[in-house]
From TrEMBL:
It comes from Macrococcus lamae. InterPro entries: Epimerase_deHydtase, NAD(P)-bd_dom_sf. Gene3D superfamilies: NAD(P)-binding Rossmann-like Domain (3.40.50.720). SUPFAM superfamilies: NAD(P)-binding Rossmann-fold domains. It comes from the Bacteria. Signal peptide: none annotated. This is NAD-dependent epimerase/dehydratase family protein. The lineage of its organism: Bacteria, Bacillati, Bacillota, Bacilli, Bacillales. Coiled coil: none annotated. Residues 5-112 form the NAD-dependent epimerase/dehydratase domain. Pfam families: Epimerase.
Length: 305
């Protein structure tokens, strides 16, 4: 019986070449958020590599999984993230899903500038990882806007936490921080397992916790409503907090979010405001980490790194 192999990135130049090289020896299954862009003869499953549940589903019945994240392709209309964070999240999803489905082996295509971190993440889990002898030299490119079937947005920000902090403590701090962004204007309410991010009494964004996908190193919230959210049956936006294994780093991700306001408003008002507030939070977290280390008797000079 021929092995079944999962392959990502097949809509790109290198991914399509990998498919051609493998198809004669194994049954290749491609995962893509928009499978209509793939070759018609290709066996595919619809899914987003940045969504853990999608990757778990894609790996059902798979024997081997090839990890290759296209350095130029993105699955959202607008992406506000650096490639290192995109790759770290995708690798963590891949390794978790492989372990969940008892995949025999992950095959990693070496040659990326992020090889060291990628392999550290992949190898943390139980699935064996093999690196190809031949490498494909590549460097992630920040392509903010790409073609997509809807005007969705993906935003990733990585934070360093004090070592004594749990993910739950960071999430509490995260929402308390929003509460204080604009005194007497910004406000956060928590009720019925949901956070309501408000401007005075107007619900801007409503975040409902997804309990069946939350644990000590991962919590998810559905972006379920609010005046800044385009309401549609097809829109499944979510906010995810993911703690990277064996580290004090958390990736906060906004996925599949479709703004309700016109694109110009998002680009020139909403996005810059969010970017500034997240940068301020990053500085605050570094100070928290510095103070935490000092309280434990560690002597360190504070720097921006």
């Amino acid at each position: 019986m021929r092995s079944r192999v999962l392959l990502t990135g097949t809509s790109g130049y290198i991914g399509s070449y990998l498919y051609e090289a493998l198809k004669e020896d194994v049954d290749v299954v491609a995962m893509s958020k928009y499978p209509e862009a793939l070759k018609k003869a290709l066996s595919w499953i619809q899914g987003d590599i940045f969504n853990l549940e999608d990757v778990k589903r894609a790996m059902e019945g798979i024997d081997f999984a090839v990890y290759y994240l296209d350095p130029t392709k993105r699955s959202s209309k607008t992406t506000e993230a650096n490639f290192n964070d995109l790759n770290a999240l995708a690798a963590d999803n891949y390794a978790r899903a492989a372990e969940h489905n008892n995949i025999k082996e992950i095959i990693y295509i070496g040659g990326a500038t992020e090889d060291a971190e990628t392999l550290k993440i992949l190898r943390h889990y139980k699935t064996p990882v093999r690196v190809t002898g031949s490498k494909i030299r590549r460097k992630g490119i920040m392509a903010q806007d790409q073609s997509s079937r809807k005007d969705d947005v993906r935003v990733l920000v990585r934070y360093k936490l004090p070592k004594s902090w749990s993910l739950e403590k960071f999430i509490t701090h995260y929402f308390n921080y929003y509460n204080d962004i604009v005194p007497k204007v910004s406000n956060v309410e928590y009720k019925n397992n949901s956070y309501y991010l408000q401007a005075r009494t107007i619900d801007l964004v409503i975040l409902k916790q997804i309990s069946d996908s939350s644990n000590n190193d991962r919590q998810q919230f559905e972006i379920s409503g609010g005046t800044l959210v385009q309401k549609s049956r097809d829109n499944k936006g979510r906010l995810e907090f993911r703690r990277l294994i064996d580290s004090n780093e958390v990736i906060v991700g906004i996925h599949d979010y479709v703004p309700a306001m016109p694109k110009w408003f998002y680009q020139f008002c909403q996005s810059p405001f969010h970017h500034v507030t997240m940068r301020v939070l990053d500085v605050e977290m570094r100070i928290q980490m510095f103070n935490d280390e000092n309280s434990q008797g560690m002597t360190r000079t504070y720097t921006k790194d």
